[in-house]
Amino acid sequence: MKDEQSLLINRDLSWLEFNRRVLEEAKDPSVPLLERLKFLAIFSCNLDEFFMVRVAGLKRRANNSGTTPDEVTGVSALTAISQKVHELAEEQHLCFLDTILPQLTAEGIHLLRPEEISREQEQFLEDYFRKTLYPIVTPLAIDPGHPFPYLANRSLCLVVSLQAKDISPLPHTELSIVHIPAQVVRRFIQLPSKEGQYAFVLLEDVLRQYLPRLTMVLTFSPRMPFALRETLNSSWYGDGMRICWRPSNRESESAVWAMPFVCNTILTSPKSY
Fold first, then answer.
1. Strand 198-202 with 188-191, pairing
2. How many other C-beta atoms can be found within 10 angstroms of the C-beta atom of residue 145?
3. Which of 27, 162, 193, 249 keeps 20 to 30 A from 239, CA to CA?
4. Is the four-CA dihedral 184, 186, 189, 190 of positive or negative sign?
């Protein structure tokens, strides 16, 4: 029986190898440039679902000292997955940073950081923040006197450090969360640029730049964005030909926190571009 088990391929590691094939499409120079960028996004979205569904199941197995169908313990499977995902993520980052991004720049498509924008573009962003973002952005305080803010699954958020500008006897908090409204406004904000050139800046970078203007009594120090990945239970419905996913109450209580690596990492870290 042990010899037979050694012939089996772990299904989760096999799925990661399938996702590697998606990444290989992004690395293929014969594929059109924007299609390669799409393959990077597909790779990340696939990992999102993988962690929300399959890794969640493995965590339950690990907590119950269970094994996978190929007789691998949940802990061992999670360790192998972690190693493989870190390897694939590094390939994805290098592909975007060293290959895709320079080629986009060569084609006149620029992803800018706030310190790289021109005076004209800065004025555009100031107007954009005042008219579009200011009315819809609200910092949510984190303190013992309030419930922890609700964070939607797969939503991007920004952790902000707060400091009172003046000494006050009123209670205050030192930490806040700001939802990045990427489902309300475009995450890639197009900036004015020369004819034939296209310039964009990330929504989270704009918020980091202009959040201090929300109040005159507190100093905002935006930190790294993050995203929440809620683990799910799988359930079969109807004739068994369709699979639906529903949140697991137990898993929701211990939802998976991660930096926005899975779906949006390559564009979220300030050191990424």
1. antiparallel
2. 7
3. 249
4. negative
CB distance 137 to 190 below 8 Å: no
Query: In the chain, what are the domain boundaries?
Result: 1-107, 108-229
Q: Judge: domain 1-107, CATH 3.40.50.1100.
A: no
Percent of the chain residues topping a pLDDT of 90: 36
pLDDT tens digits for range 244-269: 333 433 333 333 333 333 333 333 33
Q: CA 62 → CA 3, 22, 52, 74, 253, distances in Å?
A: 24, 29, 16, 4, 17
pTM: 0.73
